[in-house]
Amino acid sequence: MGFPLQSLIEKIRQGSFSDFPGGVYPGQFKELSNQTPIARIPLPDKLFIPVKQHIGVEGQLKVAVGDKVDKGQALTQSMNPFAVPVHASTSGEITAITEHVSAHPSGLPELTVELTPDGEERWVELTPMLDYRQQSKAKLLESICQAGISGLGGAGFPTHIKVSPKKDIEFLVINGVECEPYISADDRLMREHSWQIRQGIDILCHLLNPRYVLIAIEDNKPQAINAMQVACQENPDYIICSVPTKYPAGGEKQLIQMLTEREVPHNGLPVDVGVVMQNVATCYAIADAIFTGKPLLQRVVTLTGRALQHPGNVWALLGTPVAHLLEHAGIKAAERQKLIMGGPMMGFELVSTQVPVVKITNCILAPDKQEMPVAADEQPCIRCSACADACPAELLPQQLFWHAQAKELDKAKDYNLFDCIECGACAYVCPSKIPLVHYYRIAKAEIRTEEEEKQKADKARERFEARKQRLEQEKAEREARHQRASEARKAAMEKDGGDNRARVEATLARAKAKQDVEQPAAGTSDKVAAAIARAKARRQAAQENTARGDQGASPAADDKASKVAAAVARAKAKKQAAAQQPAEQNQDSGSPADDKASKVAAAVARAKAKKQAAKQQPAEQSQDSGPPAEDKAARVAAAVARAKAKKQAAQTQKEPEQTSSDGDTPLISADKEKKQKVAAAIARAKAKKAMKDKDSS
């Protein structure tokens, strides 16, 4: 950790500082732009305000195309702690919200709000906080966040996050080194606005409560050093440190090492060694937000290079296109070969003059051909190790280059690629003119892309596993519910066992009764048998009467007795048929099988009657005293009667059957069946009468 704190402070007050490894000494060329005060320029025709201008996440838009906005009005908002809003740089109308070329080495388009100024400079209502010491720190941090302030030194980290650490702070370092060649924005700001910078330092001290404040300025800025000494002379804990001019002394880790002799660990932060660092421009923006209520709308931008007629520093509204700045500075188009945003060491070449000024834009460099000649073609590495000697992070640029070129990203990470601050010192000293930083930036971007894809895949896997677990849990719960319901039903059945058995028996009884109803009537065959027995009885009675007549009865008496017996038999048959018809109707007229059986029985009865009549004919012929002609006529009449009966029976069988309401049981109307039976009885009576007439004759 270096010297004890008191000894270290004495050493700093005496102007004795440590050194950091590596570094280079390029030409400064700051006199091109630091000789004139910061200028104001006219409003541009269009402002292109990117939605995201900091490290973190972008906010959600609060405006739409066609909206009228006031100067300082918030265009975005977000509840994410790593999101800070952007504001309307002037009053006017939102004419477009679309993709626009970005302030990035790739120039890839990003979401941008296009604002057309109306020239009125109409401000939104401002809410300053003059009594900030009486306010809570949370409210003060909220004001800084809502002002849209992020680091203006180059990284763009949200300021309200950086000044709310979880650890005690010993040193608050204010970075006014500005080591990059050509750039003089912080130099002029310290010269002209040292009091506002000091006010911003006071606010930071109120938030962080550090033991000491170290204000670092390179010794090539004597006027800025004097201005800050005057502004801070009332507070002895504010120490102005004039550090040697060496590139990149303004790097965060390098400056901390110079001032405190403490090294930020690998993958660590300055807060890990008790240090917080802020840029002088950020301090000015904090004071402007708290004491005037103005959000971050503008910043100082250095316009320099020998291709400009009027180099200097200007207050540039955020969203101002570079073309408008070059028009103010008087660009010599014939002399210009390229445009660089930033300094010659860490800046990048612009792909368009429509690139807008953003919060981290501190310089637009327009060199002529003699000032910055076209770079020579890249040559093979000669392994001179000059890059390793110049690296302020003590890396091995040569190995990093090989692995980055071969896309061996894992090996590049093993060589601590992300410790590279992209200062460009290695490329500056490379005799082969290899753009080493270019390869490092591409490798970092590819690694970040892979990590993002891996994070997305991990999140997708986590969602899948969570869904699978949820489905399994729901299945288990469902099965448990079913099991509980089954056990409850079983318990209920055991509890009400007697009632359940009774209900089961009643159900079985109903089913049996229904089956009995649906089955054919069982009494049909008994009825047929009874009818056959009655027919046999009638036939036996007729035979007995005939026998009695043969034994001496008079023909008239016998004939009368036989007629009476036949009439009685017919009456009984009719009465029996009438009694059977309602029962048959109540039983749905029986099934087709029963009807067929009854017809068969009737046919059998008729056949027996015919057979009996045939047996009687020889005896009758032997006793017949009449002539043969009459006997023949009687037989013919009997045959005719039998044929009519057969014909009538055949017609009865051929008639279409009607069905019952269930569609299965044949049904013949009672009237028709009655008529058929009566006709059959009449035919039989006529046949018997003819037989008896023949006998009597």
UniProtKB/TrEMBL annotation:
Keyword Lipid metabolism: no
Textual note on the cofactor: Binds 2 [4Fe-4S] clusters per subunit.
Annotated GO MF terms: 4 iron, 4 sulfur cluster binding; electron transfer activity; metal ion binding
Chain sites annotated for binding [4Fe-4S] cluster 1: C381, C384, C387, C430
GO BP: any one term: electron transport chain
Domain 4Fe-4S ferredoxin-type: 372-401, 411-440
Compositional bias annotation for Low complexity: 563-583
Region (Disordered): 450-697
GO cellular component annotations of the record: plasma membrane
Positions with a binding annotation for [4Fe-4S] cluster 2: C391, C420, C423, C426
Membrane topology per record: Peripheral membrane protein
Alphabetized UniProt keyword annotations: 4Fe-4S, Cell inner membrane, Cell membrane, Electron transport, Iron, Iron-sulfur, Membrane, Metal-binding, Repeat, Translocase, Transport
The protein's required cofactors: [4Fe-4S] cluster
Subcellular location: Cell inner membrane
Superkingdom, taxonomy of origin: Bacteria
Basic and acidic residues: bias regions: 450-504
Listed SUPFAM superfamilies: alpha-helical ferredoxin, Nqo1 FMN-binding domain-like
Enzyme Commission code(s) on record: 7.-.-.-
Signal peptide: none
Pfam families linked to this entry: Complex1_51K, Fer4_7, RnfC_N, SLBB
Subunit structure: The complex is composed of six subunits: RnfA, RnfB, RnfC, RnfD, RnfE and RnfG.
NCBIfam families per UniProt: PRK05035.1, rnfC
Function: Part of a membrane-bound complex that couples electron transfer with translocation of ions across the membrane.
Name of the featured protein: Ion-translocating oxidoreductase complex subunit C
